[in-house]
Amino acid sequence: MTLKEFCNDFALLYKINQRTCAVNIKVCFLGKFHISVNGTVISENNWKTKKAEGILKYLLLHKNRTINRETLMELFWPQSYKKSASTSLRAALYELRKVLSVYGIVIEGNDSLIHESSNGLQIKNKNNLIIDTDTFLEHHKDLKKLSFSETDKLKRTAILERMVSIYNGNLLENDIYEDWTFFEREELKSIYLKSALSLVKIYTERKEDEKIENLLLKTLYLDPYNEEACFFLLNFYISTNQRGRAIKLYQTFKKRLRKALGIEPDKKLEDIKNLAYR
Questions:
Q1: What's the pLDDT band for 150 if we cut at 50, 70, 90?
Q2: pLDDT at position 156, please?
Q3: Most CB atoms within 10 A, among 1, 18, 69, 207?
Q4: What is the span of the domain harbouring residue 113?
Q5: How far apart are CA 105 and CA 92, in angstroms?
Q6: What is the pLDDT of residues 4-45, one digit of tens each?
Q7: What CATH number is attached to the domain comprising 86?
Q8: Last residue of some domain: 93, 127, 161?
Q9: Rounded to the nearest 5°, which phi and psi values hold at 261?
Q10: DSSP character for 116?
């Protein structure tokens, strides 16, 4: 970076930091990541490197935790020497703050989105910060408080529908090869699968066929090797006399398991598929 570029950037950051208007920040982790400020999505073209955006993702996903610099250096520059990684981290944080400031997000002081101290960096929970994974997990907590009584059934259904609606894809689906996303992704997916299949059972009782099929197709799209979802969809097709679809689904699912995992479907899938030939 030249001296002129540095001065221009500094002037831009100073000017934008004089803004006093409040901003609302919305973060979507489920599916393709994006962050919007007052409804305007921060374009991927704003990031000169993926490292700065990656650090933002990490800090947001681990909100309310102080992340020390060594952790970030090891995650994003694992092959670099400590001094080189430290320099790269400082440059990435500078770029990160620069992008955020362009969209009116406060980057200094008590109202700053990212708080920096000698212990590390932290994004604190704020009323103007809405994260889809937080909302999803809050609904899950509410769900666990309900009984299975008829009184709570309507509440349960409404919460499950909200959870399924929020879950637009697996966590950071474009970052599946980042090790630090694995456990959170699997935990959230497990909650979604259980919730989706619970909702399918409710729809089955109500005979809401279109909702059953759409939800099961979505679930198999998100988890293509889920035998339980395949079983429910096979059963649905057979019970609604769509035998051709049942046979095609089974054959496609069987090929998928063989090619990707080298295994055969569970026998219960073959047994229910055979009903389609009767």
A1: confident
A2: 96
A3: 69
A4: 3-127
A5: 17
A6: 554 445 444 444 444 445 789 999 999 999 999 999 999 988
A7: 1.10.10.10
A8: 127
A9: -115, -10
A10: E
Tell the residue number behind the tokens 């059934």, with chain if given.
153
* Angstrom distance (rounded) from CA 234 to CA 105: 49
Q: What is the pLDDT of residues 154-187, one digit of tens each?
A: 999 999 999 999 999 999 998 877 889 999 999 9
Helices 132-144 and 182-206 sit at what angle, rounded to 10 degrees?
50
Q: What does the alpha-carbon distance between residue 136 and residue 190 come to, in Å, rounded to a whole number?
A: 12
Q: Identify which of 105, 85, 89, 81 has the alpha carbon closest to the alpha carbon of residue 19.
A: 105
Q: How many domains does the chain have?
A: 2
Domain match, 75 and 19 both: yes
If asked whether residues 155 and 201 sit together in one domain, one would say yes
Q: Which long-range contacts (CB under 8 A, 24 or more apart) does 259-267 make?
A: 260/224, 260/225, 261/225, 265/227, 265/230, 266/227, 266/231
Q: Confirm if 59 and 76 have CB atoms less than 8 A apart.
A: no
Same domain (yes/no): 123, 243: no
Triad 70, 73, 74: Cα angle to 5°:
85
pLDDT: which is higher, 277 or 198: 198
Residue keyed to tokens 């395949």 = 230
Q: How far apart, in whole angstroms, are the C-alpha atoms of residue 274 and residue 270?
A: 6
Residues 140 and 273 in one domain: yes
Find, among 217, 245, 244, 243, the residue nearest to 230 by Cα.
217
Cβ atoms of 233 and 217 within 8 Å: the answer is yes
Within 10 Å of residue 114's Cβ, how many Cβ atoms? 20
> Where is the domain boundary, 100, 127, 154?
127
Q: What is the pLDDT of residue 278?
A: 77
